[in-house]
Design brief:
mainly alpha
Length: about 55
């Protein structure tokens, strides 16, 4: 599920139901965010390198 669709569905429904397509998409976004934060916190990066990640 695309992030735009996830956010639209969350705004419309107001809740995430466990096991739903939105729940799975949110978990995937969360996992990628945690991975990126861990990687960024374990090194020194230039502003340009950080922009590349984002």
């Amino acid at each position: 599920m695309e992030l735009d669709k996830l956010l639209l569905n969350m705004q419309r429904d107001g809740v995430l139901k466990g096991g739903s397509e939105e729940d799975e998409a949110m978990r995937a976004v969360s996992l990628e965010t945690r991975r990126l934060c861990a990687e960024m916190n374990n090194g020194v990066y230039t502003d340009e390198e950080i922009r590349t990640y984002m």
